């Protein structure tokens, strides 16, 4: 493998989608593929990525903020995101390192906004504050029927001998998750220049190949050898 180098123009790629569609696995695989073509990349997630943001993640996913309502959760996510951007995302991009993130601002718009009913103006304001000008260059939306996604999660839990426990959002009913799916698809339609929807119904290797094809098409310097 070629020694990893930093590009003069690092890219910021985010993965979005409902629960159980395989985002975390594909984030890892994309970072490995970037490393393979000598692109230095960092893998991160939301909420999380920094110590303060991880603390907020734990608080929310344990369900401790649920009684506060979707508006308060949106504020918490924005606080975590602001720390994540200023402490991890922006410094890495400035240093020429690509950033690949498992969820970002579209998740707040989908979960708390379109599905949770939080007013667009509040979401817009929190987004402007938290992003601080660092919008993704590309967002890959992994799309899958929620019922199929949860069957996949359950099967993997059985295969791994793990107990099937859900976090704050995984425990919502299936109709809620169907609305969430439509929220992500709506965001993708309204942001067609940035968002690409890819079916997550396919096998992991096929999905990895589809994602890599999209990334290479969007950023041709990956295959040309150019570091511009």
TrEMBL record:
UniProt organism field: Devosia limi DSM 17137
GO terms for MF: ATP binding; dTMP kinase activity
GO CC term (a single one): cytosol
The protein, known as: Thymidylate kinase
The keyword Nucleotide-binding appears for this protein: yes
Broadest EC class assigned to this enzyme: transferase
Record-stated family: Belongs to the thymidylate kinase family.
Documented EC number(s): 2.7.4.9
Function field: Phosphorylation of dTMP to form dTDP in both de novo and salvage pathways of dTTP synthesis.
CDD domains in the cross-refs: TMPK
GO biological process: dTDP biosynthetic process; dTTP biosynthetic process; dUDP biosynthetic process
Pfam short name (any one): Thymidylate_kin
NCBIfam families in UniProt: DTMP_kinase
Catalyzed chemical reaction(s): dTMP + ATP = dTDP + ADP
Binding, ATP: 17-24
Keywords recorded for this protein, A-Z: ATP-binding, Kinase, Nucleotide biosynthesis, Nucleotide-binding, Transferase
Residues in Thymidylate kinase-like domain copies: 15-211
PROSITE patterns, per the entry: THYMIDYLATE_KINASE
């Amino acid at each position: 493998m070629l020694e990893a180098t930093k590009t003069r123009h690092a890219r910021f790629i985010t993965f979005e989608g409902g629960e159980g569609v395989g985002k975390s696995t594909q984030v890892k695989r994309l970072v490995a593929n970037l490393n393979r073509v000598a692109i230095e990349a960092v893998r991160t997630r939301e909420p999380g990525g920094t110590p303060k943001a991880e603390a907020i993640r734990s608080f929310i996913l344990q369900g401790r903020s649920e009684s506060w309502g979707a508006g308060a959760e949106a504020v918490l996510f924005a606080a975590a995101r602001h720390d994540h951007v200023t402490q991890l995302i922006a410094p890495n991009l400035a240093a020429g390192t690509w950033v690949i993130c498992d969820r970002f601002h579209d998740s707040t718009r989908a979960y708390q906004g379109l599905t949770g009913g939080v007013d667009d103006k509040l979401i817009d304001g929190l987004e402007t504050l938290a992003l601080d000008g660092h919008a993704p260059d590309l967002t890959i939306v992994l799309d899958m029927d929620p019922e199929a996604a949860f069957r996949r999660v359950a099967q993997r839990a059985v295969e791994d001998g793990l107990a099937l426990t859900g976090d704050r959002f995984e425990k919502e009913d299936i109709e809620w998750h169907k609305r969430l799916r439509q929220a992500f698809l709506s965001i993708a339609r309204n942001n067609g220049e940035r968002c690409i929807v890819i079916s997550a119904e396919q096998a992991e290797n096929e999905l990895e190949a589809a994602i890599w094809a999209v990334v290479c098409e969007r950023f041709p310097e990956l295959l040309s050898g150019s570091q511009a």
